[in-house]
Amino acid sequence: MLIPKIQIPKAESFDLPEGTFKATIDDIRYTTKQKAKGAADWLRFVFRVDVPGINRFAAKAGRNFEINLHPGSDLRNFLTSLLGDKFFTDWAEEVFEFESLIGMGCEIDLVHRQGKTYAKPFVMVANIRPNEKGAKL
């Protein structure tokens, strides 16, 4: 009997060092969260991160945003850093599909946030910039 060979996939880890790294938008997930004023829609951007020396697991980072694209909102500011100031002028009153960002290359800054109740630092995607015109890694 022939027993098949099966490749073992890499485990994912969000436990990454601080620093600036090349990354790719790997996934964008939609969720609803309860807030004091009722339910709110959120997006979670998940990045595949190229961390030198880490190759035995899939290095990942994420950031959550309430879905709000009004001027000054966290999501709009984040996307402006990635897509440029002209993006929101060009796309005004148009429907934008966030899934079109999946696979886009970028550069991200990871910072650690430490809280009294955290067993280890929380890794936050603090900033994002285009990487080689958004080229994939």
Could you describe the 3D structure shown?
The protein has 137 residues and is mostly beta strands. It has 2 helices and 6 strands, in the order ββββααββ. It has helices at 74-83, 86-90; strands at 11-13, 19-35, 38-50, 57-66, 105-113, 122-130. Strands 1-4-3-2-5-6 form a 6-stranded mixed sheet. β2 (19-35) and β3 (38-50) form a beta hairpin. The protein is globular.
The proportion of strand residues reads 35-45%
Q: Looking at the chains present, what oligomeric state does this protein adopt?
A: single chain
Count helical runs: 2
Name the helix and strand elements from N-terminus to C-terminus, one letter apiece: EEEEHHEE
How much is the average pLDDT?
Answer: 91
What portion of residues is helical? 10-25%
Poorly predicted residue ranges: none
What is the CA-CA span between the terminal residues?
41 Å
Please outline the major beta sheet: 6 strands, mixed
Radius of gyration: 17 Å
Give the spatial strand order of the biggest sheet. 1-4-3-2-5-6
Shape: globular
Number of strands: 6
- Which structural class do the helices and strands define? mainly beta
What would the keywords be for this entry?
single chain, 137 residues, mainly beta, 2 helices, 45% strand
